[in-house]
Amino acid sequence: MEDRPYCWRMAEKSSDVVIIGAGLIGLATAWRLAADGIQVTVCDPTPGSQTSSVAAGMLAPVTEVEYGEDALLALNLASVAAWPSFAEELEALTGQSAGLNRTGTLSVAYDVDDAAALHRLADYQRRLGLDVEELSGREARKREPLLAAGVSGGVWVPGDHSVDNRQAVATLLRATELVGVNLIRQRVARVLTSGTAAVGVQLEDGQSLMADQIVAAAGPWSSQLEGIPQELRVPVRPLKGEILRLRVPEAYRPALHHTVRATARGFTVYLVPRPGGELVVGATTSELGYDTRVLAGGVFALLRDARTVLPITDELELVEAVAGLRPATPDNAPILGDSGLDGLLWATGHYRNGVLLTPITAQLIAETIRTGALPELAQPFLAARFGPAQHADARRADPGDEMPKVAT
Ligand code: GLY
């Protein structure tokens, strides 16, 4: 542990809480804390513009449930339940939409192997007590008439929804402004420590911000934060995903009424409709480090699978192709709470569920700061669940990559 350098030993406290990263998680946490009268500063060179703006915004705890991830399912379900009141509060404060679309989700299968996998998953979902209804291909097409004739079956999931994540970012930025959050458009160069405590952050221009509490919400860059001892770093790695935004011509709207998640010849694709005529198609998954280039193969795969289940895809305008980085962890679950340094909490590693987990993460971290105790729901997600080897590996998540200019 380093000694306190003289230059900031005498520095005064800048705010009660400093949050590293202005993605959805950082912004929502800042809003919750500042609304309770806590002085909050958030640092990010490009607020809300990374993973939070690339994502498709699915709220899919049931549709995307994975075998054996029961603790994560409980957290995901708590957060999908929290979204409506979270959105209402934001909307009441700002007068802007938070982007929540409560449309339900339809999972569909294309060929017989896809259908077998979907029905196995539906069995598991039912055993977990989740609300799912199995459908024939014809019943699935009744809900979504433009689905391909070859769609062989489906599962209706009424409680899985979506959020226009870009709208949510814009509304959270406005909300944080209204409750007096201090947003500094700079990268955090390092976390400042004294003994076994985090006491502030140093910005890239050299300025130090001292605070009682630091929250690290730097998404896929969380493992790269300087100043945190090697053994306490988190094993978060960037997992690239390419996403397309298509525009549905007026004549074909709505191309879809619900979010559709499809398995087509063994490949998964999801299609998320927005009320304004946008259709978001995602997402690829590649272990390529901090690489956000959109590759032709990624665009090809998404369009191939989308048009297999929704042939009208060919008639839609391709408006945007973009790649983002999911903050992935070894067990696919987030890292919440104690870091091993007094005064530093993690709110990171949300992997495929960042938009979904925004309300519950903000609530849990704000409660931890107010009460000094991590709520029970968050206990399975402490960084301490990872062994020392995984911590030590965090820095090597992407050898050769430097901390990028953008924090989250
Ligand atoms: N939750 C969707 C994705 O990560 O692609």
Automatic annotation (TrEMBL):
Ranges for domain FAD dependent oxidoreductase: 16-367
Q: Which SUPFAM superfamilies match?
A: FAD-linked reductases, C-terminal domain, FAD/NAD(P)-binding domain
| Keywords, ordered alphabetically | Oxidoreductase, Thiamine biosynthesis
| Superkingdom | Bacteria
Report the EC code(s) recorded for this entry.
Answer: 1.4.3.19
Give me the segments passing through the membrane: none
The chemistry this enzyme catalyses reads: glycine + O2 + H2O = glyoxylate + H2O2 + NH4(+)
Its recorded name reads glycine oxidase
